[in-house]
Amino acid sequence: MYSVCVRNRAQAGMQGKEMELSYMELREQICDVCHKMWQLGWVAANDGNVSAKLPDGTFLATPTGISKSFITPEKLVHIDAGANVLDGLEGYRPSSEIKMHLKCYSEREDVGAVLHAHPPVATGYAVANVPLDEYSMIETVIAIGSVPVTPYGTPSTDEVPRAIAPYLGEHDVMLLQNHGALAVGSDVITAYYRMETLELFAKISLNAHLLGGAQELPREQIDRLISMREQYKVTGKHPGYKKYSE
Description:
Elements: H1 3-11, H2 17-39, E1 49-53, E2 59-61, E3 77-79, E4 85-87, H3 98-107, E5 113-117, H4 120-127, H5 138-143, E6 149-150, H6 159-168, E7 173-176, E8 180-185, H7 188-210, H8 219-227
Parallel strand pairs: 6-7
Antiparallel strand pairs: 1-2, 1-5, 2-3, 3-4, 5-8, 7-8
């Protein structure tokens, strides 16, 4: 199943059984995350996409036109930084959103995985053009900070990469206006966890709004929580206190 891909990896310098197993496990991990996205209702039909960076600077990415519930390891495509397919099943090509993924990698050396989905509540905020910029939930302040809405961009075009570029320097999680959500991380699981945190925060924020509005933490407590990120080994780009409605 993996013979062609593993051989190509070895030819690129990734030799040895341990590295081959790591490569295969990464394929399995991407598929596991895709299945979870579908089970949680974050994607429908052929929505959403996931990619991961390999040590040699190439990438594994989900193919276009396939439900995340049907993704299997051999269906992933191996591409270079120009989105050219290096190996994979015949006829399979990366998602049309791959330009957005590649922009994340080119702007951030620390990014090892990118996840795009349409979690319903968070996407509701994106459609309403309402940022999740409240510092009202302890775990969210530490894990992802405030979440902006990036300007609208037509999917599959260069508009989306350009729209997210100004935000990548400070944010690991973004809402894409009238589109969905984007999360990046050092690895696939980290990016997945950030998307999961985003959707839970969106649900809680919506419930708080229905109950009269969230009670934001005092500034000194926000700063204290932000200072605890290192203690909890939270890495990435999460801004300090910032109100995007100002």
